[in-house]
Specification:
Keywords: Membrane, Transmembrane, Transmembrane helix. By secondary structure, this protein is mainly α. It has one domain. It contains eight helices and no strands. Helix 1 runs antiparallel to helix 8, helix 3 runs antiparallel to helix 4 and helix 3 packs parallel to helix 8. It is globular and about 45 Å long.
Length: 224
């Protein structure tokens, strides 16, 4: 079997994603605006489910790569940190978000707090860079893009980029003098939060498919 040959499981997963996206598109048309905003707010159920999704991704990563303990633990740690970020822990113990430069430049806070926060932020960024490097090396240098797991990794990455664009677009367009209508802004928020919730699950699925492949090690491909 070729490394990129889709299976029935891939078809089912793709169908579920399409149905989920259609559901997201239907919610603003079927429910009152206030209810939709509550569902997809920063304290709403989709935001809470994003936390669960990242924890699931961490567990799957540790299960799929039990023999690659160091790499799996670092991936799992990053996923747990993403869950913590969804729970707003990046600003729970500081005067503002420790991931924003404004906190260090303009927020009034004790110097020791800022130093500790900066150390945590640097560790987080280092983890992101490490995971990004491992995934890019697997996809590009080791031919991972030809495998089922690699293709799902690419699909998940595309959804992340789309989600970030939907997150930033309304504010950036407003600054440029092109404010979105309420309905367009509502749909953008629904898809941003909705895709944010499902992305860790797609990532978990892709990493599970990558078990036995040279994500960390140098072993040859086992056609998955």
């Amino acid at each position: 079997m070729k490394a990129n040959t889709p299976t029935r499981a891939d078809g089912i997963a793709a169908l579920l994603i399409v149905l989920y996206i259609l559901l997201l598109a239907a919610i603003p048309a079927l429910r009152p605006v206030a209810e939709v905003k509550a569902l997809f707010s920063e304290e709403g159920p989709f935001e809470m489910l994003s936390i669960v999704s990242w924890i699931v991704a961490a567990v799957v990563m540790l299960a799929a790569f039990r023999e690659e303990k160091r790499g799996a633990l670092l991936f799992g740690l990053l996923f747990v940190l993403f869950a913590a970020r969804e729970a707003d822990w990046h600003k729970k113990f500081t005067a503002d978000s420790l991931l924003k430069s404004n906190y260090y430049r303009h927020t009034e806070a004790p110097l020791m707090e800022k130093l500790l926060a900066f150390a945590v932020a640097l560790a987080f960024i280092a983890l992101v860079l490490y995971v990004g490097f491992v995934i890019a090396r697997f996809l590009l240098a080791r031919g991972g893009w030809r495998t089922r797991g690699g293709l799902w990794l690419l699909a998940g990455t595309a959804l992340v980029v789309l989600g970030k664009l939907l997150d930033r677009a309304p504010a950036e367009l407003a600054l440029a003098g092109h404010a979105l209508s309420e309905s367009v802004g509502l749909y953008a928020g629904v898809f941003e939060e909705g895709l944010e919730m499902i992305h860790p699950l797609i990532l978990a699925w892709s990493l599970w498919l990558c078990r036995g492949l040279p994500l960390f090690g140098r072993a040859g491909f086992s056609r998955r």
